[in-house]
Amino acid sequence: RVEQRAQEMESEKNDGGGSGGGIESEFIIDCLNKNELGDGELFKRLYRDNFVFNKSMDCWMYWTGHHWNVDKMDYAAASVEGVAMVYQDEAKRLAGKIREMPNNEYETKHLEARRDQLNKRANALRSSRRRKNCLMFAHTSADPLAIDGTEIDQKPLLLACANGVLNLATGEIEPGRQVDCLHKASPVNWP
């Protein structure tokens, strides 16, 4: 189930097409050069709307569509595979570029070395240590993918339901919004 949820989230984020789900090559290479910090930056770019680290609870939370849930099944950890796939896709893009290049030994060697770095990073992200560090940097770097925790459930007139968010002031059902930081939710649909 964890892998399936991670794949669903990945396909939602990768609708942009191209190498790395629409992420610019320049940004991918910048992340590669920043080592584990860069892995965290890439995770933030891919999953800003899907995950947040709650500092007070010391855990990841994932977006359900209408409210945030505690990530007991490690969807965030499983989603680090998306970061590995961005690096791998960029390596494939470079491999294609190498095949299409006219004979330029210097440029070819440079691109081959970069391709190898990308593949090596993708493989490293499939280790426990690198996966944990990617997540750690995602919530401890500049513009962290994190909240203090005091923001949770601070809107008493909003009630998350299975089919949306009930505005208790108006009686209207609305789409959920990540910024509302709703956690408590009813598992039933509002009529």
Q: Topology, pairings included?
A:
Blueprint: H1 2-13, H2 25-33, H3 35-47, E1 51-54, E2 59-63, E3 68-70, H4 75-100, H5 105-124, H6 128-140, E4 146-147, E5 158-161, E6 164-167, E7 172-174
Parallel strand pairs: 1-4
Antiparallel strand pairs: 1-2, 2-3, 5-6, 6-7
Structure notes:
The longest helix is centred in the middle third of the chain and has 26 residues, at 75-100. It is built from six helices and seven strands. Residues 11-18 have low confidence and may be disordered. The strands form two sheets. A four-stranded mixed sheet has the order 3-2-1-4. It has a three-stranded antiparallel sheet with strand order 5-6-7, with no helix packed on it. α2 runs antiparallel to α3, α3 packs across α4 (75-100) and α4 (75-100) crosses α6. The chain has 191 residues and is an alpha+beta fold.
At a glance:
The chain has 191 residues and is an alpha+beta fold. It has six helices and seven strands, in the order H-H-H-E-E-E-H-H-H-E-E-E-E.
Characteristic terms for this protein:
191 residues, alpha+beta, four-stranded mixed β-sheet, 7 strands, 49% helix
Radius of gyration, rounded?
A: 20 Å
Taking pLDDT < 50 over at least 5 consecutive residues as the criterion, the unreliable ranges are 11-18
The coarse overall form would be: elongated
Strand content: 5-15%
Give the integer mean of the pLDDT values.
91
What is the H-and-E element order?
A: HHHEEEHHHEEEE
